[in-house]
Specification:
Elements: H1 15-26, H2 29-41, H3 45-73, H4 77-84, H5 91-123, H6 132-144, H7 148-166, H8 168-195, H9 200-208, H10 217-230, H11 237-242, H12 251-279, H13 290-301, H14 305-338, H15 343-363, H16 378-416, H17 423-448
Helix pairs in contact: 1-8, 1-12, 1-14, 2-10, 2-12, 3-4, 3-10, 3-12, 3-16, 3-17, 4-5, 5-7, 5-14, 5-15, 5-16, 6-13, 7-8, 7-14, 7-15, 8-12, 8-14, 9-12, 10-16, 10-17, 13-14, 14-15, 15-16, 16-17
The protein binds phenylalanine.
Length: about 450
């Protein structure tokens, strides 16, 4: 279907709808679960600054690239490359994207499931007066058990499928417009609580006062991978969403707003978490368990902790949901347009297949722990391959595609539909996607593969 006529497609109904949906995609577990713990692991502010550099120099231009490819082609990520570069191998970038989407959603749904369980635990007062050691064993007992985390994961996948099932405007956009303001409200309440704790300053210092001696090569690779993961880049989420954006939209402005929103929420999440962690004398570098083990301990000691713990895990769940729908949509749009399936059928097929892989991810925490590859269980493997490999690789190709294949004139034509194009800004953009982004990604990659070492 994707080489000839344009199929009839859904369109976002408003500018705010576009931003809510795209920021909803970007703001997710990446911001609230992953960003704080990797910042903690890699030493705090120095990691944050490298991350911010990648966001500005690589993330923002690639986000604009994806939106441009999407709106220009008005197709799913595979169809987009097939349409814009007929008869070439570029469509493999689309295959890469759809595969990355399936992998990410498989493990993403598992963590989102944990988050729902923690809402329930918070409501029922389940954190009680547990000691840090008890909190830790409660977490591991739960994620390693063979039944309940799977039930929560499936419940989350059903919610995700329910929204995508309805469509872009009446499903994705409608829910994002309601959930994103809610999320901003919750995080602001949590921030106010955190910075008014006694001893909050030390946490803020950890987050904002860089000590570059703590930065490792590994930290730099993770900062790049996380910039892609957090902005939902490198696998065609924003190609897909961009394909639903109308021609009047000012794409560079949209890309800027979404990038700023995502970065602001990550920092706000850091501000909610580190002051509390330091105020109660807990290790900031506690890894993936930070929000599930460390924070419940913090809430327990904090005035109003019962209320704030419910709010926090609700925030995490809402953020996960507006992201997971965008990941599923990549696969659904592909099934719909390339395999000529109805939207409802595509949603069910894609959702069920991914949920099944997700079940194995969940089991790989416990019963299937022994099955590892490169020393990683299935969950960690999918996380590592997608964030550190597939997304930066996808991003590299997307930048090369826009910079070298589409080229300045065709990009200008597309951007001019929705806004006056400022020539020098366009030059900067083209320069970044032609040279800087691919160069930086290549360097970080070669480092990651051990070809050389700058750590
Ligand atoms: N950006 C989302 C987050 O931060 C995750 C995501 C990755 C969504 C890739 C879509 C594509 O949680």
């Amino acid at each position: 279907m994707s080489n000839g006529k344009l199929p009839v497609r859904d369109v976002f109904s408003s500018k705010f709808g576009v931003i809510a949906a795209a920021a909803g995609s970007a703001v997710g577990l990446g911001n609230i679960w992953k960003f704080p713990y990797i910042t903690g692991v890699y030493g705090g502010a120095a990691f944050l600054f490298v991350y911010l550099g990648f966001i500005a120099l690589i993330g923002l231009p690639i986000m604009l690239s994806e939106l441009t490819i999407g709106r220009k082609s008005k197709r799913n990520v595979f169809g987009a490359f097939k349409f814009l570069a007929p008869g070439s191998a570029w469509k493999l970038v689309g295959v890469l994207g759809v595969s990355a989407a399936a992998m990410i959603l498989a493990f993403y749904g598992v963590v989102a499931g944990w988050s729902i369980d923690y809402v329930a635990k918070a409501v029922s007062g389940g954190f009680g007066t547990k000691s840090p050691a008890e909190m830790e064993s409660m977490f591991f007992r739960f994620i390693e058990s063979p039944v309940s985390p799977i039930l929560y994961q499936l419940f989350f996948m059903v919610m995700t499928m329910g929204i995508v099932f309805v469509g872009v405007k009446d499903g994705i956009e409608k829910y994002a417009k309601f959930l994103m303001p809610l999320l901003v409200l919750i995080i602001i309440v949590l921030d106010i609580r955190a910075v008014t704790l006694k001893g909050a300053m030390e946490g803020l210092r950890f987050l904002f006062n860089p000590d570059f001696s703590k930065l490792t090569g590994d930290g730099i690779l993770s900062a790049l991978g996380h910039a892609f993961f957090s902005l939902s880049l490198g696998m065609g989420t924003l190609v897909t969403y961009g394909s639903y954006v109308d021609d009047k939209n000012n794409l560079p402005l949209t890309a800027l707003q979404v990038t700023l929103a995502d970065t602001a929420i990550a920092i706000l999440a850091g501000i909610a978490i580190f002051p509390a962690v330091f105020a109660f004398g807990i290790e900031p570098s506690s890894g993936p368990g930070l929000v599930f083990i460390t924070l419940p301990n913090v809430f327990q000691q904090m005035p109003g902790g019962y209320f704030f713990s419910i709010l926090f895990f609700l925030l995490l769940t809402v953020a996960a949901l507006t992201s997971s729908i965008s990941i599923l949509e990549v696969v659904v749009a592909y099934f719909q347009e390339e395999l000529n399936l109805k939207r409802h059928v595509s949603t069910i097929v894609a959702g069920v297949l991914i949920a099944i892989v997700g079940v194995f991810c969940s089991l790989s925490m416990g019963v299937l722990k022994e099955f590892t590859l490169f020393n990683l269980n299935l969950f960690d493997l999918l996380d590592w391959i997608s964030a550190n490999l597939l997304l930066p690789l996808g991003g590299l190709f997307i930048a090369l595609f826009v910079g070298w294949f589409l080229g300045r004139k065709r990009v200008e034509e597309e951007l001019a539909k929705g806004a006056g194009v400022i020539p020098w800004l366009l030059s900067v953009f083209i320069f970044l996607v032609k040279f800087i982004a691919p160069g930086a990604i290549a360097i970080v990659f070669l480092h990651g593969l051990g070809v050389f070492n700058f750590g």
